Amino acid sequence: MIVPMSRIEIVGPKSAMERATQVLHAEGALHLEHVPLVADGYRSFLHRVHLTDEQEKERQFIEDLVGTLAEVVAFIPTSIKAQTETVARCTEALSTTPPAEIFADATALARNIRSLVRRRNNIQDDLQTVAHYRNIFQALIPLFPRDLDGEGSNTADNREFIAILLDRGQEKAISLLREQMEEITKGDYAVHTSKLAENRLCGVITFEKKYAKKVKNLLWSEGVNELALPSEFRGKSLLDSLEAIQKRAKELPRKIQTVRAELDTFLRENGARMLAIHQICLDRLSQLNAVNNFATSTFTFVIDAWAPTTSVNRIRKRLANEVNEAIDVREIRRSGINPTGVPVKLSNHPWIKPFELLLSVFSPPTYGTIDPTILVAIIFPLFYGFILGDIGYGAIILALALFLRHRYRHIEVARSVCWIASCCAVSSILFGIVFGEFFGSLGIELGIIPSFLPLWEERMKIMNELLAIAILTGVFHVGLGLIIGMYHSLKKRDGKHFGEKFGMFLGFLGFLFAAEAHFQLLLSPTVAGYLSGGLLLMAVVIIAVSVGFLGAIEILSIASNILSYSRLMAIGIASIVLADIANRFAHNAGNLILGVLVGGIIHTVNLVMGIFSPVIQSLRLQYVEFLPKFYKPDGRDYNPFGRR
């Protein structure tokens, strides 16, 4: 339902503006507009409000602080964010604290969290680096001669050892390197390589020290990377470096656990307070930014806004009691205001409200039109259940939805999605009872479902009847959309659009009588044919007069609109066939484990398809066949000035 809105003007003493701003922010009902500074035929006495230098400094500081807090608040666990009552108590407790103390506290808390997070990230980076070099060293050790670690060191003093890394595609460089090393060292060299992960190579080159400069120039010219050790390991032998790395590899996980424990403890102790401070900063920033919409004269301030009609008296009383009795709140007549300029607030029952999410892909409905949320909330789950129609699949979806709703209960969008999924799952279970389906025919085959099921019949045996029901559903759904469209046009006294909708409805009836002429259910073919032709002709004439002859072509779309509802049956049957394939494979596999495994995989695939395919098809019928008949999403979002 679209909430009635009133345009109001608030005028009061200039000295009371800041306090009035705080009260209106706490009320959270006003959709602020820019106050017009000049009225036609009158001299302007109003001026736009600008922040003082001190307020502008405060605003910039809080903007920076909010950015910092938003960054660190992301690290607070969802379990703490879900403690809304605790956060509210912290916010209330901080309400009497001077802003300077709150901001200083926020800065200190953010600094501590950043420090802990930085330490954690640094250790994680070190751990990755250590793991990288440990793998390389373990591949290099067998390639080094024994005299490197002190055994047989009579030759080590005269030899140079260089570790190299080769990327993928550089394997050919080894052959070229050997040829040139042969020439440079006159054959007194050795090159040993070993494979690393991702087709990389590591290697060791040994030669007399007097050739070191030439060899390094050769490596540089050929693009061969010499292994660069971290600074802390330079100057150590390979074995000493490996030992030090292995020691670090054991120490770092303990360090990271310690830092994580410190971070978790700090967030548990201060998380709610940080969330409260973040909210306080957002509130203050909102109040400072809001005054740009206000205007002042020498002695007064003026606020122009929209508010729900039912909130106007409450706003008036609250301003009088908490700010100043001299503040005047008056409603402004809306004559001449374009409905698309009125902010739209929806108010639906808590069970219906989550379905507003399905319409959020569009702009809000135009003010004064119809909010279709309740219709979508009823019809969408029915379509979903009719398609899936399985007790087992529905039960799994319901369990998953309830779990996720509890897990992410602090996220409004997640709660809405899970509620919609729960309604669809219940609908699927109910239709599954009607059709007697539990993972397809598995429930009947194993005797899991009660003997009195199905209440009607298995879907594979009544496909013609289901197709007829799907088409009749389309007749009802499309017809309902046209009737609502006519009602709305008539209510708005919009003759042009009423003529268009009325003509489409006559065309709709014409196609119904054409179907009657074919099936001969109630009328003779002759009578039904004459009625069909007459109605279609009238429809063409009325639409052509209302919106032009090209508009009459849209009559042809009605038949395709109705026939497209056959997908409700077809997709459901496809799901049944796939479920039966899974059951038959499990039954005929000859191996219980193999049968259960493959059958389970097929059922899982069918379940995933059963989650998404009915959603897509049901939404398509809503968005393409139903809503365009009357829904006008040209509204403006209602953004109340208040806490977010």
Q: Measured on Cα atoms, how large is the radius of gyration?
A: 37 Å
Tell the overall outline: extended
Number of helices: 20
Mean pLDDT level: 86
Beta percentage is 5-15%
What is the strand tally?
A: 12
Report helical residue fraction: 55-70%
- Taking pLDDT < 50 over at least 5 consecutive residues as the criterion, the unreliable ranges are 147-155
Structural class: alpha+beta
Major β-sheet profile:
6 strands, antiparallel
Give the N-to-C terminal Cα separation: 22 Å
Could you please describe the fold and organization of this structure?
The protein has 644 residues and is an alpha+beta fold. 60% of the residues lie in helices and 9% in strands. The chain has 20 helices and twelve strands. Strands 1, 2, 3, 8, 9 and 10 form a six-stranded antiparallel β-sheet that branches. Strand 5 (189-195) and strand 6 form a beta hairpin. Helix 5 runs antiparallel to helix 8 (238-290), helix 14 (463-491) packs antiparallel against helix 15 (495-519) and helix 15 packs antiparallel against helix 16 (525-547). Mean pLDDT is 86; it is low at 147-155.
Keywords:
644 residues, alpha+beta, extended
Summarize the structure.
The protein is of the alpha+beta class and 644 residues long. Helix content is 60%, strand content 9%.
